[in-house]
Amino acid sequence: MQDPDWWRQAAVYQIYPRSFADSNGDGIGDLKGITSRIPYLKSLGVDAVWLSPFYPSALADGGYDVDDYRDVDPKLGTLEDFDEMIAALHEAGIKLVADIVPNHTSNRHAWFQEALASPKGSAARNRYIFRDGKGPDGAEPPSDWESVFGGPAWERTEDGQWYMHIFAREQPDLNWDNREVRDDFLTTLRFWSDRGVDGFRVDVAHALTKDMTEPLPSKAELGPEGGNNNGRHPFWDRDEVHEVFAEWRRVFDEYTPPRTAVAEAWVHADRRARYASPEGLGQAFNFDLLKADWNPHQFRDIITKNLVEATSSGASSTWVFSNHDVVRHATRYGLPPAGPDGTSKPGQGGEGGQDGSAWLMSGGTEPVLDRELGERRARAVSQLMLALPGSAYLYQGEELGLHEVADIADEDRQDPTFFRNRGVDVGRDGCRVPLPWTKDGRSFGFGFEGAHLPQPEWFGEYAVEVQEGDPASHLSFYRRALQLRRELQGDEDFEWIEESSADVLHFTRPGGWHCVTNFGPTPVDLPAGTVLLSSSPLADGKLPGDTTAWLA
After folding, report:
1. Which terminus of the chain, N or C, has less C-beta within 10 A?
2. What region, left, alpha or beta, does residue 2 occupy, with left being phi > 0 and alpha being psi -120 to 50 degrees?
3. Rounded CA separation 122/112 (Å)
4. 0.85 cut: is pTM over it?
């Protein structure tokens, strides 16, 4: 537990707390529910838990609208419950990474309420980004910028000024040019680190610092969020943000072992290394595999580039296929890739990628989901990911082979992207449906009453209870893979082995550990050695299509 490099090749399990386990039957997951399931996490074999926001919140954006950064939402528990949870995690040998949301507060935060009650130009308003509007009466927003969630990025207040919100209007952006804002977050980092938090996942790390010099550029003049804007975009990926994270690093290094951090930074690959710098956050999410089609050439290029990038920055790479913001990968890989025009066409890759967005918009009917294929491929890529040097991030439920829930009724949806983009985006609720623990029950064992998002009947088939005793289950596969990964893990070295088939990716790790993945439909011969684990049964000693094997 004192190893300062524990994070470099850790298996980190993301918990979306409202949907993990409900201890009191109110339909919302809570901290006591998490504590009750720590034996499950230990048996799974993860090194750390990443806890999505658990702070007081109106849930305008699933908890990413924070009312108070140094407290627990009463619906989820108390600070005492938090202390009990982290002590139990540490007793089980599991570290805790806390989500922190520094780009914006909620509109219920004490600072923002003070800003609304204060005159323009006041110190209270200077903690946020307030501007006068355009036009003779200031009735037009300061710019035509759009929110990530749809609609304008500005909201007018009762006195006529406007405040900026890159996301929902309930999430006003903070002014990171203000020293008070910077100092308050240093206090927050120490508050949680003193309680034993081992690291932080930094939400929207690439948006903190902004250039609000007037005249503000038009929407047409802005570069894309993930483009290489050379640090000149008004609010995405500005160079000044690394001054903030250098201060954070000094705080992290006050502790033994140093606290860790990983940046959620949707930036151009050429700019990601700065977030992962040892002088900054130390690690940055790599979402490239998450966006890849079922294509060995894409996988090889992405893996190669990111390992080179990690080596150059001194960090370790991160690998992820599912999280709280995207369609679950068991579903994505059961759908045909999107073609160049964004429609799903078998055998064609395209700009849209295999992201499942069109399938979601159809309510899960078009194109037809091949569940078995998706689960088979999900196991294969998860096993491939767990063999790579670097840290692997797992999302709750993927170890069960859970699919996305597409057919949630409009009246049951919660995600602001659905309400702000009706007919364009159904939101992210489908990957946030509470987990099934038992085959039966009102909420399949999530709690003893209902669940805050409706669970489909087929969830019972994927319940932990159903999979526990089945050695061929998705859960048993994950447990074995994570156990073997820990036993086999060595230095962060890696070498590609060339294969005669273009459908096969083959690499080795220190100690003679081989990973072979067959992306094609035809079984292929395996290299000599002992098969330690295969994501699907071998076919007469050969590696079937859509399958990964580890050999020693």
Report:
1. N
2. alpha
3. 12
4. yes
